Amino acid sequence: MMKEKRRKFLISALGLFGSGLLVTWLFRRRLIRKLLFTFPDNSTVVVSHSPTEMDPCVLTSKQVEGPFYLPSPERNNIVEDKIGELLHLRMQVIKYPECTPVSNAVVEVWQADAEGNYSGYPEQISNDEWKMFMLFGKNGEKQPNGEYHVKQVSQTTFLRGLQRTDQNGWVSFDTLVPCWYIGRIPHIHFKVFVNSDEWINSQLYFEKEFCDNLFTTKAPYNQMGKCPLNFQNDAVFSMAGGNHKGLLLAPNSNNENKLTAIARIGIMKT
């Protein structure tokens, strides 16, 4: 009789202990998301489209580098073995305010895949607050320029590449539409170097309606679903606010039913 009572007591105690761990875990995840990955709405954010080839050039807005930058290999097809909505991205570098093309400039791009993962870093953590928090805590470091960078942990290189502009200032990349991840709406990072000097570091974006439709209808994006963020509460825009010029892409399907987008990057030496 005593053994039976003791067994029931132990089972109850273990059940309470397990429930306590579960509650602690859930609370910890919510607390981390609230403190580190939730940003207040900033109604002052305005993001304009990149001008077309027929539009006047604009001075493209600069943005932060972000924590996942790594030097890229020279190539125009950066997809490797990743699956998602293929995107042919054309970029023209032009000098502002003259609107003249810049030849032999280096354009470097990097981005997340269709599940929010960056090459060089652990995959399947894009929507896990605790794993993302631990990655930043263990491998993150502040750079001399004030940027926060996460040290590389793997040798993967997908969705990273660089090209040199032709005589008319153009480069092109075959890539994928990126997915969102904790704290960020979908975006493509880019840098432009002229004579080895960095002239601009920024990011390109997509309309939310376009992303929501894609992320609910096509694999593997639908594993993440609709992005819970918008321009007003994205981690970068919510802190910066203001008018961000020339950063919004307008993808279209070409005659081969492939998605294409154009970005004209206006740069000026400061």
Report what the structure shows.
Strands 2, 3, 8, 12 and 13 form a five-stranded mixed β-sheet that branches. Strands 7-4-9-10 form a four-stranded antiparallel β-sheet, with no helix packed on it. Strands 1-11 form a two-stranded parallel ribbon. It has helices at residues 2-36, 129-139, 208-217, 235-240; strands spanning 46-49, 86-95, 100-101, 106-111, 140-142, 148-150, 160-164, 170-176, 187-194, 197-205, 243-248, 252-253, 259-267. The model is unreliable at 5-27 (pLDDT under 50). The protein contains four helices and 13 strands. By secondary structure, the protein is an alpha+beta fold.
Question: Summed up, what is this model?
Answer:
With 270 residues, this protein is α+β, with helices and mostly antiparallel strands. The chain is 23% helix and 27% strand. It has four helices and 13 strands.
Features:
single chain, 270 residues, alpha+beta, five-stranded mixed sheet, four-stranded antiparallel sheet, 27% strand
